Amino acid sequence: MLCGQRDEVWCPTFSALVGYLKGVALDAIIFLLILTAATVAIRAKRTWLVLAFTGIALLATLGLFLHHATDSLGVNL
Amino acid sequence: MSTPPIAEPNLQLKERMGAQRVLGSLSFWAHVAFILAYVGVLSTAMFYFQFAEGELPCPLCILQRMAMMIVVIGPVFIVSRALRGESSATSLATGAGISIVGAVLGLMMSGRQVLLHIAPDDPGYGTAVLGMHLYSWALVTFLVVLVFCGLVLAGSRWLVPIAPRSVLLRRIVRIILWLFLATIALNAIVVFAESGWNWFLPDNPTSYQLFTH
């Protein structure tokens, strides 16, 4: 079942959990991911590690961008 | 009978090595300038427009800052490798690749914001600098990055960066690298203050929610 359907068991539980927890500023978390990637790049020891951390930061940024881009249009991806 | 010239090939080799050293050095400082330029852009956005002028960045503005930082990770890697004496055409390509992907991401974001405000009579978001808004300038910088990386990759055979030997110059470069890290850390703190205990930033932020809610 797709997440978003009201009769599905998991989603209300998840929504309740998210509602119970306070938000933790996703933007700040992504900045911390970028900070980690930049620190690994400054150490410049292992290329794959730099690529891995930068890739994670990049995907997180892309995800947040897609959220904002689709949210303001009322579009569900 | 004339003796074959022996010194000439050595001279050519020396000249070639000298030219490569100059190009390598230029490449190194071009990448340092790249980092410094973006640290300057990010600091101006934060210290002048956000703190002095009181213009709170919107979610798309923050995303463009993130893309700029990801773009800078490329030259940071290239310069750090050169400082360690492990510079190569491969590390140059890796760094340029990171910057290109980051610049494409940034182009998507700044392009979207330009299109959001492109309609006639739309005042745009924030202050205009030299006739263009900050997101339009961001788009220009991402395009410049793409051109720069294209040129670096095209000439990667000759543009392997060579770090200076001077201890002072190396220290200055390291300070610039640490400035970049400090810029990211400061942005993380500021965006947390702006967002407060919420998952996402509001579309049109008017206050630092950490202190007002």
Summarize the structure.
The complex is a heterodimer of chains A (77) and B (213). With 77 residues, chain A is mainly alpha-helical.
Question: Which tags fit this structure?
Answer:
heterodimer, A: 77 residues, 3 helices, elongated, disordered N terminus, B: mainly alpha
Q: Which geometry of chain B do the CA atoms define?
A: elongated
Q: How does the overall form of chain A come out from the CA principal axes?
A: elongated
Largest sheet properties of chain A: none
Let me know the average pLDDT of chain A: 78
- The count of β-strands of chain B is 2
Straight-line N-to-C gap of chain A: 16 Å
Distance between the termini of chain B: 95 Å
Structural class of chain A: mainly alpha
Q: Summarize the amount of helix of chain B as a percent range.
A: over 70%
Q: Could you say which structural class the secondary elements and strand pairing of chain B correspond to?
A: mainly alpha
Q: Strand content of the residues of chain A, in percent?
A: under 5%
What order do the helices and strands of chain A follow? HHH
Q: Which series of helices and strands of chain B comes N to C?
A: HHHEEHHH
Strand order of the largest sheet of chain B: 1-2
Question: Which consecutive residue ranges of chain B, at least 5 long each, have pLDDT under 50?
Answer: none
